[in-house]
Specification:
The protein has 489 residues and is of the alpha+beta class. The chain is built from 15 helices and 19 strands. The strands form 4 sheets. Strands 6, 10, 11, 14, 15, 16, 17, 18 and 19 form a 9-stranded mixed sheet that branches. The mean pLDDT is 93.
Length: 489
Amino acid sequence: MGRKPPEWEEPSRLERLEALYARGIEPYGARYQVSAEVKDMLADFDRHLGERHRLAGRLRAIRSHGGAAFADLDDGSGMLQLHLKSDLLKEDFALVALLDLGDIVGAEGELTRTRRGEPTLEVAKLTVLAKALRPLPAKWHGLQDQDLRYRQRYLDMIANPQVRSIFRRRADVMRQLRAELDAMGFVEVDTPILTPVATGTAARPFSSHHHALDQEVYLRIATELYLKRLLVGGMHKVYELGRIFRNEGLDSFHNPEFTMLEVYQAFADETVMMELTEQLIGGVVERLCGSPVLTYQGTRLDFSAPWPRLSLAQILQERAELDLASLGSEQDWRKAAGQRGLEVEGKSFAKVIDAFFERYAEPLLEQPSFLTDYPLAISPLAKAQAKAAHLTHRFEPFCLGRELGNGYAELNDPIDQRRRFLEQEAARGAGDEEAHAFDEDFLTALEHGMPPAGGLGLGIDRLVMLVTDQPSIRDVLPFPLLKNRVDPL
């Protein structure tokens, strides 16, 4: 029949596949109407005794006993035992010998209990829906190789059913955020993923070439400047929940592709956005965990509002004896870092300031907190403070010393914004690949008048890590980016 197996196929499985074809059975079936999910029946099984149902799922175990067999069917919601008897299946009982672990089947029959009380479906009709040509991971040991779990997430979900619950919880987080924002009158919008300029934050973008337009394009590194264009256009409460792409390193808290929520509200400021942050994150935690308190990797965290507000400027003044007003240039910051033994050689300006944060501020931010009063030098889109022009109306929410997001009172002065873009462009020319790009189109929008506004960005993946108690961002992404393997799976 021209079906030559690749080297990886098990010959016995392929032989059983050919045997199904020989019997006139299509082993890769079409639509199968399911009448219920296993979890719903198991929740109150005795109420369903005697009912006839059609179930579909993957075979996780097969135990043959002469003229009968038992099998465990996993439909993704739960596991139910199938009883396969020759007197019920008649000529179709021969199919049992052609089944393998991992095959997907449809089973129709009556719900009953065995003599030992095991919930069971007495199968009267069996349908092969998909023949598995590769074996599943060993039942008792599961899929242990961490790299393989990420590469073959489908196997991870089969071998470790709790992984499926993480991704369902992820969907719950996004559903809750949308519900909260929609109830407050915010409008969800879509902005471009491919952009002519990578703007909205300081980050290195991924680039490509659009052949029809014959121009360079970039995967977005933020949605901010497009959302603020909508403020100019009169949409005063907007948000976007979408994918962001940054050409950066990978670790337990960073993946080059991640999900970000950005929210903008006209006539608001950073105080309003901090309160919104408490409401959004606190609401997610309470809704999904049953309380504003959760335990993450052994640490008890309380997300009850209000969260402490800590000034970065004050922390550096008190703990590092650093007066931010005296640091007017990047060279001033580098000199101060050297005097305090911070390793900043070869690092970007933003990373230099991060070194101060990690040494002096991070240890203070275990419980949910806001860090405020960020330097103007690393906040090119935030409004400057009237009484301290070297600082901005910017905040970042933190937990366990890790940033959960970013927010501020938005800069809406087009002349000041142009000046800051020019400073960032000079930094790019000096070799800082993460400096903010110049965006003339955004300046044109700003020159038409943007209302005062507050903005907020939240990292969804890190929030999901908290509510699912997962140690790595890769554990909450269905398909994290991995280095290509040279050896075959």
